[in-house]
Amino acid sequence: MGLYDRDYTQENFQSGQHHAPHMRIQFPRITSAVKWLLIINIAAFISGYLIPRFGVFQLEWFSVWPETFGTTMQVWRFITYQFLHGGLGHIFMNMFILYFFGTMIENFWGSRKFLTFYLVCGTTGGIFYPILAHIGWLPTGPLIGASGSILGMLAAAAILFPRMVVYVFGVFPLKMYVLAIILLAWSLLSILRPDVNANAGGEAAHLGGMCAGAIYVLSERWRQRLKMKVHKNIWESRMTDHRILDMEVDRILKKVHDKGMHSLTYKEKKVLKQATKAEQMRNKF
């Protein structure tokens, strides 16, 4: 994957406007989440390379390895496998794409949203492979690499910026949506013919990551509406509780006025204390 022209580097770019940009090639300024993802990935690779025993330990305890049902249910593996790589070419390609596309998407979404998206895509890819392995479709073995997250980013970029041009191997220009279709087709073919591709397990993670990335972007409006509805329901419920509490306080205060404080039950005194605390909280904010 080579350099590309990015929407957010254009002078007329505004968030939410996904028109095809003019050509502009440069190295983007690294963003916070991408920087830390690069550091963790590279540190894990170097430490495992320099200390072979530690590399074996990483593989045995932090890869996705559906050898047994027990190892499959070690859920931390679905996160940690994303930070392990099997060779210099493997980590270089993943980190190269993470730097360019991750920086672009993080600038577009913000660090927190991007990091959530990145980990969700990788986790989905990590889950998808053991499912196919346990039903006997794919052979079992250790799964490592950030490729599920990387392919999820490419799927997201294909939806957000479909006409953005990328240069495969720095030479062949392709529009983003075309590249995503090619990668999707390759992953599907690899899974359908696992006897042909020795990395069919990795392609399963790629496919899972791409599906997660696409669903995440396409469902964003629906998720925002659902979030707003939940917040609205919570707010309405709180307002109803406040109204009920106010009515009960009015009744209790009238009782105090008519019969005195000694006439109150334990429950009524507790309601008054609750109302006092609620009023103090409202005044504080």
Describe the protein.
The structure is a single chain. With 285 residues, the protein is mainly alpha-helical. The protein folds into 2 domains: 7-218, Rhomboid-like fold, CATH 1.20.1540.10; 223-284. It is 68% helix and 3% strand. A two-stranded antiparallel ribbon has the order 1-2.
Write out key terms for the chains shown:
285 residues, mainly alpha, disordered N terminus, Rhomboid-like fold
Brief summary of the model shown:
The chain has helices at 32-50, 52-62, 69-72, 77-80, 88-109, 111-134, 147-160, 176-192, 200-218, 220-259, 266-284, and strands spanning 165-168, 172-175. The chain has 285 residues and is mostly helical. Strands 1-2 form a two-stranded antiparallel sheet.
